[in-house]
Amino acid sequence: MNARRGEEPLKAADTRQKALRVNLDLQRYGTFAEIGAGQEVVRWFFRVGGAAGTIAKSISAYDMTVSDAYYGSCERYVCRPRLQSMLDFEYESNLTQLSKVRGDDTAFFAFADTVSARNYKGTNDCHGWMGVKFQAFPRDVESQVIIHVRMLDADNALQQEALGVVGVNLLHAAFYLQADPDAFLESLLDGLSVDRIEVDMIEFSGIAFRQMDNRVMSMKLVQLGLSNAAMFAADGSVLQPSEVLYKKSILVERGSFRPVTHVNVDMLRCAQEKFAAEEDVEADSIIPLMEITMSNLLASGQVDYRDFLARVDLMATMGVTVLISDYFEYYRLAAYLARYTQSRIGLAMGVASLRELFDEKYYIELQGGILESFGRLFKNRLKLYIYPLLDVETNEFTAVQNLEVAPNLRKLFEYLVERGCIEQLNNFNESYLPIFSRDVLGKIEARDASWEQMVPDEVAALIKQRGFFGYQP
């Protein structure tokens, strides 16, 4: 952990100690701006003593008109643009007003949050945006880190308390844990638990974080248990799930994507065509996602970050949004997606995955077993779109119509098919059926150039350009 010359490193993850360390740091000086849920973060710095050396201003522009006067108008007050406008305004105000007086010896910062804590009726989505824009050293170029949190306590006072703790943790980590990404993330919930706070988005920017890849950091949120899922766009920018998925129709394809093959792309295309044809689905509202589970990334025992980024870069060439989740069970994935939308949800999968879906060993922890899991999975009119399988050795073709399931589940399977919960895709490209990603990897390793015909041109070009998966000319 970083410490200034002559200063003892912090030995305990205590909120009071963290706040006091910041207050006693003679270089740190800045502003706290908080909207919603009170001024719970700055309260810690006032409470521990020494605040006069740290706090230039504390403000809560709670009234919408007052808030707009400071930060400009916006449609929503608990959103990322509002947080950014708060950070920019307060940070620039510090530089403008204080640089001449103390700029040579002071690293200025602006902390901000905009939060919707539990309302009186308990009907709102309890979440918030929080961030800090700061100088790592006096006269330094600014850096920034922002997070999105979901507050899970059932009581408003407890939510405010948790918000104050995570705010102190964020400020302390930004100042003293810049060089240790894992410690940075793990420290965000010091003094809390995942039962109280979920951090489902984090984004680093600026000179202090120039070595960090936001995609890796997003994945680590899931790996470390701070969040159940993370999302980023094809251009690599970090996304907050609720803002992307809100009121949208969602179509997900789960896979290893190691690498992306013609089958992966064709499966999503076929499913999207069928999904868009549903009566209550607007084609323009569909958000297609490619999802990788943490269990897949941890298949070898630990995450290979270079391999992870290779897969993500290849998915990016297809222009789709990427979802990383720890929802191994499909019914848990369905519940997660339903949190953000009341529109239709579709899952595209191969027939082999459908076969596994009807394997009762995956549901032994549920009191209601497979029936309970399917009740949860199809609760919100979710639909499965099934891509067929061709065994290249036996030439056996497997689809929904001839899939074998356990005899005791046959009636259940037929019922779900007849009800329209499971649909066989018939608009697939037959020439792609013999393609398997394991064969692509084998051919790359063997320097058999025929693998290039098994993946999209963009994927092949990037694999060759960057030497992914051990490719050599």
Automatic annotation (TrEMBL):
Domain of life the protein comes from: Bacteria
Protein's name in the database: Nicotinate-nucleotide adenylyltransferase
The species this protein was found in: Roseimaritima ulvae
